Amino acid sequence: MNTLKTKICSSCETNFSCGDISVENKCWCNDYPPIFNLSEGGDCLCPVCFKEACEDKIDAYIETITPEKALKNKAQSLPKTEKLIEGIDYYMENGNMVFKTWYHLKRGSCCGNGCRHCPY
How much is the CA Rg of the chain, to the nearest whole Å? Predict the structure, then answer.
């Protein structure tokens, strides 16, 4: 069953594909953390705008995190996504992946390696 739809981004008004023709009821946006309520916005966003919106929302959440709050944070309880997303979970620096605070929060504890963005 073909579930691919063409939509217009409610932010930048570009056309984009929504859905995945290989998996019923799955869309590219399912790879992102489920941090938005359906009631929070208008219609769908294109991949670029959606990623930016996710980064902004995560960054705003991270600003509220203290080491005490990190132990019981919302990121741990979210359904796990299968792939890491550059800009959300990590960034590249000199050919190395540097894990961001969001990645560490999802993991749920400190690994003891002195990570640069460890919230614990």
Answer: 16
